[in-house]
Amino acid sequence: MRDDAHPSDLKGLARDLNAAFPGLSPLERLTTLRETVPGRLVFTTSLGIEDQLITHLIFRNAIKIEVVTLDTGRLFPETYDLWRRTEEQYGKRIHAKYPNGEKLEELIEDQGIDGFYYAKEFRLNCCGVRKIEPLGRALDGASGWVTGLRADQSANRQDMDFAGFDAVRGLVKANPIFDMSRADVAAFCAENAVPVNVLHDRNFLSIGCAPCTRALQPGEPERAGRWWWEDDTKRECGLHVPDATDGTDGARELAR
Ligand code: SF4
């Protein structure tokens, strides 16, 4: 359990950050977050281009925010290659959380190695074991969680805030590049030699697990390549659910 910040304090800090963030640069948001919130801060990266921008800012400026990735075991080879290249470029470790071995064995026994294609329930089970449970361990005891979410990634994200209080996990959730466009992010990464996934050049805009991600067709929205066989509009894996940004609204289900 975290012992250096009470949840009611964190709720107030989240409100302060949300008010302060719009006038600040992404780097200033990260440093302000670090100066404002006591205790462990964790940035979870999927190694997508947005997350690489934040990793660059944290590593280059030695900001005391842990950089953690969830290795589901089903990532693209190109993503593992980027992970290695990033550690080499910055001389820093990206910490990893893995699925619980016994739970993973039970999952595969129950629904098969690629069961997620056959029923949404199976897909959520897989995301639960490979992502949600490890995320819980990554955030255990943390006061704050940093994400690379952007508002214009999907309609579901339009009404999110820069920062809020995640009432379920009891921490501040901060989205420091929430107002950047994809073009802004790409331009920053190009100008600053930030390593990015080579799959982005092959029309993979949002990159997750290999069996659940495909390249976009011309004109498709940014996240259309994720869980494309599910035809509903809310394709969530649960990493960002529920998003209780003001402590009262806990029903927003968002995808990663
Ligand atoms: Fe499993 Fe696909 Fe979810 Fe990855 S994205 S955890 S492979 S269902």
UniProtKB/TrEMBL annotation:
<dbReference type="InterPro" id="IPR004511">
    <property type="entry name" value="PAPS/APS_Rdtase"/>
</dbReference>
<keyword id="KW-0560">Oxidoreductase</keyword>
<keyword id="KW-0411">Iron-sulfur</keyword>
<dbReference type="InterPro" id="IPR014729">
    <property type="entry name" value="Rossmann-like_a/b/a_fold"/>
</dbReference>
<feature type="binding site">
    <location>
        <position position="212"/>
    </location>
    <ligand>
        <name>[4Fe-4S] cluster</name>
    </ligand>
</feature>
<dbReference type="InterPro" id="IPR002500">
    <property type="entry name" value="PAPS_reduct_dom"/>
</dbReference>
<comment type="similarity">
    <text>Belongs to the PAPS reductase family. CysH subfamily.</text>
</comment>
<comment type="pathway">
    <text>Sulfur metabolism; hydrogen sulfide biosynthesis; sulfite from sulfate.</text>
</comment>
<dbReference type="GO" id="GO:0004604">
    <property type="term" value="F:phosphoadenylyl-sulfate reductase (thioredoxin) activity"/>
</dbReference>
<protein>
    <recommendedName>
        <fullName>Adenosine 5'-phosphosulfate reductase</fullName>
        <ecNumber>1.8.4.10</ecNumber>
    </recommendedName>
</protein>
<feature type="binding site">
    <location>
        <position position="127"/>
    </location>
    <ligand>
        <name>[4Fe-4S] cluster</name>
    </ligand>
</feature>
<keyword id="KW-0963">Cytoplasm</keyword>
<feature type="binding site">
    <location>
        <position position="126"/>
    </location>
    <ligand>
        <name>[4Fe-4S] cluster</name>
    </ligand>
</feature>
<keyword id="KW-0479">Metal-binding</keyword>
<feature type="domain" description="Phosphoadenosine phosphosulphate reductase">
    <location>
        <begin position="41"/>
        <end position="215"/>
    </location>
</feature>
<keyword id="KW-0408">Iron</keyword>
<feature type="active site" description="Nucleophile; cysteine thiosulfonate intermediate">
    <location>
        <position position="237"/>
    </location>
</feature>
<comment type="function">
    <text>Catalyzes the formation of sulfite from adenosine 5'-phosphosulfate (APS) using thioredoxin as an electron donor.</text>
</comment>
<dbReference type="Pfam" id="PF01507">
    <property type="entry name" value="PAPS_reduct"/>
</dbReference>
<feature type="binding site">
    <location>
        <position position="209"/>
    </location>
    <ligand>
        <name>[4Fe-4S] cluster</name>
    </ligand>
</feature>
